[in-house]
Design goal:
Length: 567
């Protein structure tokens, strides 16, 4: 409690104890100790007896004076630091030298920490002492910790790691949310809203204006992305940069070569569309990568790999294709479309580029433009032709039936090319949004075999289940249930736990709409993922199932009176 006082020549409790042990007149010794160590103000001595008359203990008086002086000193430290005196930091360093021996005293510690906080460069010896003492390290300001972290990457990594884990958990929780809606989904929050998340704010505070710490965080994100292939790390990379941009941290934004590109892309994400003006700006940034600076492509690709960026690019691509159809133009004639495909290709190739350390834009497969997109547009034309046919008077109708097969080129490219696959998946979402049951039943079986099983990824399934709520009444039809479940979702059931969970999300929302006989079949479906038993959404018997979604299951909120017939 009194650590450091002897070093400053100030008597402490041990000195008083020794004095009382060796003296012959304790009262005189106490008076002498108080005289030497009390407040050295002559006029105060005559006033103290008045406090005694009012029953105010001397300890209480001295403590209140001490607290007041401490607050005044801390304010003075802040004033000196914020001033313009050239020697202001010299004054603070002198104060630090005098006060640091008392850093372990709880009553003095706030003053020492205040001085440390306002020193732009704390003496290395003091930093090492703070770092070596867990209690001191814990209570020191983030401004001091930054100076410690910049030369201790492992320690900084220990601080950052829990935040990165928390971020991934939050993103995955959002994807598996029980709320299904086309209006409120994973991509609904605006970029600025997302940047107000706890993890982003904490990381931004930890980095401050320190370029070295910013570079460390980016390296952590690259390493984790490389190790896990988790695209949410790409989101965090973009959010972190734009959070610093919001705070006008020019020390970092001015040295990050991706800043202006991210700023422009962020505006596109906010609008969920890349307009012609911003498309030209983005193209200018990509074309402006100079020889010898190709490494920046690694960071640009990571920013474009962010699911929010990818979502915006593909939505813009689908919209562009619709405009081309209305103009009776070909995909290869649209510069904006070609740029969107270029950025999609760069984003989709982020992992390969960072892994290989070959910083070169991936060559875009031209047949995606000349063969795949026309094939996809032909599907749109088929659908439009059938719709127009149905609206004709009966005497003008032909025997045209809705096509059930897909162009071979379309199916092949969504299996072999990831950019084509991404566009194809978003086209499926587009027709679901239009409540086009026929087109959906035609396309879903083709999604069983896609590039790298992208159709069974969490982001697509999250969006698809939300879009399917628009077709809730169609689930009363066995034909539609067969298309959604038998021809698509259940094909991956036995090997993919995430598909199981997304099915549960969908059925939890729509179970009252699903055909009763089909619902009974689903409740007996085998193949629950490992670790699922014990959850209220699974039975405890030998055959894990969709019990919780059965209309008669006790966990079903609509009826809790009886148990599931299967158990």
């Amino acid at each position: 409690m009194f650590a450091g006082l002897p070093e400053l020549g100030i008597s402490n409790g041990e000195d008083l104890k020794e004095t009382l042990t060796n003296c012959t007149e304790p009262l005189k010794a106490i008076d002498q100790f108080q005289m030497e160590n009390g407040i050295l103000l002559p006029t105060l001595q005559s006033a103290l007896p008045f406090l005694d008359l009012h029953g105010t203990p001397r300890l209480e008086f001295h403590q209140s004076v001490f607290d007041e002086l401490r607050e005044k000193l801390m304010e003075r430290v802040a004033t000196i630091a914020e001033g313009k005196d050239e020697d202001r930091y010299v004054k603070l360093e002198e104060l630090l030298e005098k006060s640091f021996p008392l850093v372990k005293m709880p009553s003095i510690q706030p003053i020492v920490m205040q001085v440390l906080k306002h020193l732009p460069k704390v003496p290395e010896k003091k930093l090492k002492q703070v770092m070596a003492d867990k209690e001191l390290y814990k209570v020191c300001a983030v401004e001091v910790k930054r100076q410690i972290w910049q030369d201790n990457q492992a320690l900084f990594g220990d601080e950052v790691s829990p935040l990165l884990k928390q971020y991934i958990v939050e993103k995955e929780a959002a994807l598996f949310s029980s709320d299904l809606s086309i209006l409120h989904n994973f991509f609904s929050p605006s970029p600025k809203t997302r940047r107000q998340g706890e993890v982003v704010l904490k990381l931004t505070q930890m980095i401050g204006k320190n370029v070295k710490l910013y570079d460390m965080v980016l390296q952590f994100l690259r390493t984790l992305f490389l190790r896990t292939r988790n695209v949410h790390y790409c989101t965090l990379r973009a959010e972190l940069l734009m959070s610093l941009h919001d705070l006008d941290i020019s020390e970092i934004c001015s040295v990050d070569p991706c800043h202006k590109f991210s700023w422009c892309l962020d505006a596109c994400i906010r609008e969920k569309f890349v307009d012609a003006k911003r498309a030209r700006e983005l193209q200018g940034f990509l074309d402006g990568v100079k020889k010898g600076q190709e490494q920046v492509l690694g960071d640009l690709s990571m920013i474009l790999c962010d699911p929010f960026a990818c979502n915006t690019l593909v939505l813009s691509t689908v919209r562009n294709l619709q405009e081309l159809l209305s103009q009776e133009a070909l995909p290869r004639d649209s510069p904006d479309l070609l740029l969107l495909l270029r950025m999609l290709s760069l984003g989709q190739g982020a992992w390969d580029m960072i892994d290989s350390q070959v910083f070169k834009e991936p060559r875009m497969d031209l047949e995606v433009v000349t063969r795949f997109l026309p094939a996809m547009m032909s599907i749109v034309v088929d659908d439009y032709t059938f719709t127009v046919e149905q609206k004709l008077p009966s005497e003008e109708k032909t025997s045209l039936t809705y096509p059930t097969t897909l162009p071979e080129t379309f199916s092949r490219y969504i299996q072999e090319n990831r950019v084509a696959c991404e566009i194809g998946l978003y086209y499926v979402l587009h027709i679901a949004k239009l409540r086009n049951k026929n087109a959906l039943q035609r396309l879903l079986p083709a999604l069983v075999d896609t590039y790298n099983d992208m159709a069974f990824g969490d982001i697509f399934l999250h969006l698809l289940t939300g879009h399917l709520t628009l077709l809730s009444d169609e689930f009363g039809s066995e034909e539609f249930c067969t298309a959604v479940f038998d021809n698509f979702l259940l094909t991956s059931f036995s090997r993919s736990e995430n598909v199981h969970r997304h099915c549960l999300r969908l059925l939890n929302h729509l179970h009252q709409k699903v055909l009763v006989s089909y619902m009974e079949t689903l409740t007996k479906t085998e193949g629950a993922p490992p670790g699922a038993r014990g959850s209220p959404f699974y039975g405890s018997g030998p055959s894990p199932c969709f019990c919780a979604l059965h209309p008669l299951h006790p966990y079903n909120p609509s009826l809790r009176e009886t148990g599931c017939p299967s158990h």
